[in-house]
Design a protein that fits this description.
The chain has two helices and seven strands; from the N terminus they run E-E-E-E-E-E-H-E-H. The chain is α+β, with helices and mostly antiparallel strands and 122 residues long. It has a domain of 72 residues. A three-stranded antiparallel β-sheet has the order 6-1-7, with helices on one face. The longest helix is centred in the C-terminal third of the chain and has 11 residues. The protein is elongated.
Length: 122
């Protein structure tokens, strides 16, 4: 069964242990030998589902599990369209325009400058 990742567009690996929720599927368990009392134990299998370009080939039981838990979807997820880069047309050719540097040691307002100049020269 082919499933598509619902969380990513590229490649990635999803680790799942479906035997914890679906105890009736034999594929999700590893059966060990019987002990002295004749009890056969089963251990959960962990699976690594590898998505390549957002697509993975899995068994039907694994595909049903991934679809049920919404970690995969049946059809490819739509890829958002990318916007064209914005062209900047200005006289400075896209370079930043900075303010003139502040004069060090002189006040900003012309009125304050004139008053200080009068105080320095009586």
């Amino acid at each position: 069964m082919r499933v598509y990742s619902s969380a990513m567009y590229g490649s990635g690996t999803l680790c799942v242990t479906p035997g914890k929720k679906h105890r009736d599927v034999e594929e999700f368990f590893e059966v060990t030998e019987a002990d002295a009392n004749g009890v056969v134990s089963r251990e959960f299998r962990s699976f690594a589902v590898k998505f390549v370009d957002g697509v993975a080939e899995v068994s039907d039981a694994m595909g049903a599990y991934l679809l049920e838990h919404e970690t995969a979807i049946v059809s490819a997820a739509p890829v958002p369209a990318s916007r064209a880069p914005q062209q900047i047309q200005d006289a400075n050719f896209g370079r930043p325009i900075y303010k003139k540097p502040t004069e060090v040691g002189r006040p900003h307002h012309p009125e304050v400058r004139e008053e200080l100049a009068r105080m320095d020269h009586p």
